């Protein structure tokens, strides 16, 4: 799932939303996407994360292909 905000959670309620997504390993969160210049359509999103040992998340480079 991708979102063009800093978090999937509301500003004042950070933890519960993340826990719901993290319990189900079928969904990978991608936060902070810059999508304002992307035209509506069907795309394939490829996310290339940095492998960080012992980390719960990492910065990624996203590639959007129409």
Give the SSE map:
Blueprint: E1 2-3, H1 14-23, E2 30-31, E3 44-49, E4 60-65
Parallel strand pairs: 1-2
Antiparallel strand pairs: 3-4
Family: Belongs to the Cyclase 1 superfamily.
Protein name: Cyclase family protein
Organism: Aegilops tauschii subsp. strangulata
What does this structure look like?
The protein is of the alpha+beta class. The protein is built from 1 helix and 4 strands, in the order βαβββ. Helix 1 links the parallel strand 1 and strand 2 (30-31). The longest helix is centred in the first third of the chain and has 10 residues, at 14-23. The protein starts with a strand and ends with a strand. Belongs to the Cyclase 1 superfamily. This is Cyclase family protein.
What are the salient characteristics of this protein?
alpha+beta, two-stranded antiparallel sheet, 1 helix, arylformamidase activity, Cyclase family protein, KFase/CYL, extracellular matrix
């Amino acid at each position: 799932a991708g979102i063009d905000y800093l978090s999937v959670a509301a500003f004042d309620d950070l933890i519960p939303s993340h826990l719901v997504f993290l319990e189900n390993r079928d969904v990978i969160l991608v936060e902070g996407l810059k999508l304002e210049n992307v035209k509506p359509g069907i795309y394939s999103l490829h996310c290339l994360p940095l492998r960080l040992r012992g980390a719960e998340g990492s910065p990624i480079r996203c590639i959007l292909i129409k």
